[in-house]
Amino acid sequence: MRGLEHRGLAHAEGPIIIAQRRETAGFGELVAVYGRDGVRRVGRVVDTSDKAVAIQLFSANTGLSLDDTRMEYLGRPLELRVGPDLLGRVFDGLGQSADGYPEILSSEFRDVNGSPINPAARVYPRDFIQTGVSAIDGLNTLIRGQKLPIFSGNGLPHNRLAAQIVRQAKILSSNSSSGATGAEPFAIVFAGMGIKYDVARFFVDAFEKSGVLSRVVMFLSLADSPTIERLVTPRSALTAAEYLAYERNMHVLVVLTDMTNYCEALREVSAARGEVPSRKGYPGYLYSDLASLYERAGRIEGSTGSITQIPILSMPNDDVTNPIPDLTGYITEGQIVVDREMSQKGLYPPIAVLPSLSRLMKDGIGPGMTRDDHKDVSSQLFAAYARVKSVRNLAAIIGEEELSALDKNYLRFGERFETDFVGQSEDEDRSIAETLDIGWRLLALLPRDELLRVSKAMIEKYLPKGE
Questions:
Q1: Per-residue b/e over 334-348, b at no fewer than 16 CB within 10 Å?
Q2: What mean pLDDT comes out for the span 69-75?
């Protein structure tokens, strides 16, 4: 029978308390916990056995004693109140109002763990998303329904890049031209996990200045918030995104930052639960836990809405083999890599083109979506820039003056490629046509017999003989 209170704990460590097993306790169930001070704390059941139940508190265990603690099993999982009034609001990691306004007016609740999606009901991602950033649109195209993480490092401008994508991202309908005509804007769901106040303030200011704040839902778990709240924050955000996408038929862009803070919280709680650690001390279920978040992106039959994810993770010591980026790369459809060396040169955005990848790019470019030359231009630019890297390595050994005329030509191409194509101002919103035209101007710097990945018809059409 629900509503009964049980007294006494067997053990308490950090956010984890262990109580005697009760028949009414279910996995994932919310529990109200009262100490001697009478303060109501909320937790959830994270593990059960024949004799004990483990409860994870959403706050510190200060004020609790083993003998006098009372628990009430609430008979429901953690839920988020949803409704049309979500847009324009700021919530904490648990989905409670954090902007000084009352809770939204709605009687609808959704389990933050989401509902399983039948794989057969998924629609393959195809529509091109124009971010206005040439290094992404031209070479690592983002597709509606894709999950494309940003791999970065501490001190790099990944937050500025994410804010720029949020400001500029739009879906170009298949019958529109390669400009703003027919563009469909996004609703944005932003989740901050363990971020500092100045980072949260930066995103709020960026959304306000660009005029998109009215279509943004923010879930903020700051650095001084309880560790366990970080584990709930992305689930609350994705629950809001699923409601907006699949029930309100909106295109939703979800930004999750910083996934490294999320994984650190998962490691901390796992250690408190006494679980056997795996690589770098992370729990063995890190892969499946990350997949439970990333796989909530996509499109499903019966809804015109979609969820596109841009998780941001700062790689510890810029190590791409760290378990967090390593496992993320297996689950997501590519990555955008922010490069420290390019950032130190003053380039913005410092996107490393060669290690970046969009596995779904081929399905969102070409006639009717971007332009008929997109595939050829992107392939040729990538090949030419890869040659630039080889030439630079050779020049570091024998000296630039010993290079052949062709190699020197490639060096000039590489400098122009980084400054004119990859580099652009933070407020510059390039159409896909502008991006491809810049690509052709750069390819004109190379001899035509070097353009082996571009068809002769494309060269005649976009690169006249006089150039």
A1: bbbbbbeebbeeebb
A2: 87
